[in-house]
Amino acid sequence: MRLEMKNYLFATYISLLLLSISSCDNKIEINAGYKEIPIVYGLIDISEDQHYIRIEKAFQNSDNTSSSQITQIPDSLYFDTLVVKMFDANNPSNYILLDRYDGKMFPKDSGTFSSNRNTLYTTTKTLPTTTGTLGLEIYNPKSGKKYTASTPVIYGGEFKDFGSPFVAMNESKAKVIQYVFSKGNNAFMYDLFVRLYYKEMNASDTSITSDKTIDFFFEKGYLTSGFDSYSNNSYKKIAWVDFLRFLKVGLKEDASKIRRVSNLTFSAYGGSSELAELLELSKPVIGFVQKNSEYSNISNGALGIFTSRNYVYKEKALVDSSFYYIAKYAPNFIY
């Protein structure tokens, strides 16, 4: 999940926001005077070494400039003088300032909006709190406006084995591995998946390699009430033949590549109640009137979300038969 997913969720949120503005209120003046409306997307994960927050201006047309022209002007999409900080909500004097970063490492995809700049606010500093409530403050010196938000930090979560820690795959539905997980603090829902790490080599020169992963999801948005204990009602059984079949369709045949298994992890991404609410409100509405409420937990008229998630994983040991069956099912793997 990481930055790619964040950017994807942000783009989805903005698209839905603009759709709701254009379709739900026929009294909006399209060429009204400029109004400062920050759009914020911050998803803080304490397992990360670096944190990013995206802050942009809400797209607004003008009297003498077309929409297509405006979207190609970076200054129309980004603020240039923001002071952004995160702080311990229980001790505001404990804070860190975020650096402005124009995103050369993460260029935007081509499209309607300018890709010449991808401004983010980032830090590699230790967060002011990793177990309490984290605050966000955005200050614009030009306008004197300040925007704030806060979120409980999600932390913890634990995997526990029932039975052997080794994964011996075969083609029998009866061969399963038990996925047992205890939720983290402040987590509301989880995406649960198995992640296969593999090395991809150039078939003509195996010294040319790249490390890759593929994820097999078996639960998305799973509510944490199912993980309150290690009882027999709180674990999942995965038929490994289903995983093997997934590899066959999830990876493309490529005769120019050779692949070899590196590792396997059981993984979980925990999300907050705010994130769950945003995703729920972002679902398409079936009916004649497309009208969803606009979710935001940012103060003073800003729109967006500032929240927390966490990533927890447990490595598994693969025995020899596992490599054999992966190579049998997954394209271009060697045993």
Which descriptors apply to this entry?
single chain, 335 residues, alpha+beta, 2 domains, 9-stranded mixed sheet, 5 helices, disordered N terminus
Characterization of the model:
Helix content is 17%, strand content 41%. The protein has 335 residues and is an alpha+beta fold. The protein has two domains: 191 residues, no CATH class; 132 residues. Strands 1, 2, 5, 6, 10, 12, 13, 15 and 16 form a nine-stranded mixed beta sheet that branches. A four-stranded antiparallel beta sheet has the order 4-3-7-8, with no helix packed on it. The protein has a three-stranded antiparallel beta sheet with strand order 9-11-14. It has five helices and 16 strands.
Quick description:
The protein is of the alpha+beta class and about 325 residues long. Helix content is about 15%, strand content about 40%.
